[in-house]
Amino acid sequence: MEELYREQILEHYKRPHNFGVLEHPDLEFQDNNPFCGDEQHVTIRLDDEGKVAEVNFDGKGCAISKSSASLMTTLLKGKTVRDAENLFVQFHRMVTSNPDAPIDEKAIGKLAVFSGVRELPVRIKGATHSWHAVLRALRGAGEAVTAEEARLARCRCGKWRGV
Fold first, then answer.
1. Do the domain assignments include residue 143?
2. d(CA 157, CA 160)
3. 3 state DSSP class of 146
4. Cβ-contact 123, 65 below 8 angstroms
5. Beta pairing partners, 148
6. Residues 62-91: tens digit of each pLDDT
7. Structural domain of residue 102, as residue ranges?
8. Domain for residue 50, yes or no?
9. Number of structural domains, the chain?
10. Sheet holding 52-60: strands in order across?
11. 97 torsion bin: left (phi>0), alpha (psi -120 to 50), beta (else)
């Protein structure tokens, strides 16, 4: 299973989906991580209902960062802001969980390929970098999505308490 995951990550790294900048986007956000050199620029076009119609990314980064951004862009199409936030919470919870913790593959879907990141905490930032950029764009660029916010994203009733 680990080998299959590695192959999928490398495939998204070598042939990233939705790579490039959308012309005339509705939303965009550019971010860089000075510690590792990753740079992410996301551009988003929304449909008339406010759902993600198109999302692209551009920039540079390691295999984990680039492949995470590639897979993220394929999964966010057709999603609402709330859906995107919930998917981020599930993804963040998985990559920051104990390596021995079971993975809710039904909730996380194709993102389970990044479960190995749990064993390499230095890779968490790269895996989540594009997600932070997309959520900042969807929220209006001023609001950062911090690791603390991700941990506290669910209130006692289990529902998202974000915007």
1. yes
2. 9
3. coil
4. no
5. none
6. 899 999 999 999 999 999 988 999 999 999
7. 2-151
8. yes
9. 1
10. 27-32, 39-46, 52-60
11. beta
Q: Is position 46 within any domain?
A: yes
Position 135 in a domain: yes
Any idea what the CATH number is for the domain that residue 86 is in? 3.90.1010.10
Q: One-letter amino acid identity for 108?
A: I
Tell me the per-residue pLDDT of 127-150, one tens digit each, with 9 for 90 and over: 999 998 998 888 875 444 444 443
Tokens linked to 88: 């981020």
- For residue 21 the two structure tokens come to 């900048």
In terms of Cβ atoms closer than 10 Å to its own Cβ (0-12, 13-18, 19+), residue 25 is middle
Neighbouring residues of 161: CB distance < 8 A, sequence distance ≥ 6: 153, 154, 155
* Whole-angstrom distance, CA of residue 148 vs CA of residue 44: 25
Placement of tokens 């980064």 in the chain? 61
Q: Which two tokens stand for residue 126?
A: 């790269």
